[in-house]
Amino acid sequence: ILFESGEHLLKPEGEALLKKVYPILQDNISQNDIFIAGHTDNVPIRPDARDRYESNWTLSTYRAIEVVKYLTGQGIPPQSVTAAGYGEYKPVADNATDVGKAKNRRVELFLIPKIIKR
């Protein structure tokens, strides 16, 4: 699920993807919790966005929360969802290119078996 640079709102493509995976998440929610990890590229927060995002960690967390809001709005129980932000520290692509940066502006969803005690 990709985001515009310096933004946390889901792109239409991201919403479409969440609509596709939602039935899978819903079918597995009784046995699993959903962990949502937000990520950014390595571009520093723009001066005009610093009032919204203190850092890339903040931005990445907002991205994860945006997905939480979407999923809980569709019916996933809030107690089954966790959001976390990793900032720019776990890239999947090279931040030296625009294509790589775009790939790093993402969230990842993980199913965590409820058998694991917290």
What can you tell me about this protein's structure?
The chain has 118 residues and is an alpha+beta fold. It has helices spanning 12-28, 56-74, 98-104; strands at 32-38, 81-85, 107-113. The chain has a three-stranded mixed beta sheet with strand order 2-1-3. Helix content is 36%, strand content 16%.
Helix content: 25-40%
Q: Identify low-pLDDT runs.
A: none
The H/E string reads HEHEHE
What order do the strands of the largest sheet run in, or round the barrel if closed?
2-1-3
The strand count comes to: 3
**Counting H and I runs of at least 4 residues, what is the number of helices?**
3
Radius of gyration, in angstroms, nearest whole number: 14 Å
Measured between the Cα atoms of the first and last residue, the distance is 28 Å
Percentage of β-strand residues: 15-25%
Average pLDDT, to the nearest integer? 95
Q: What gross morphology would you assign?
A: elongated
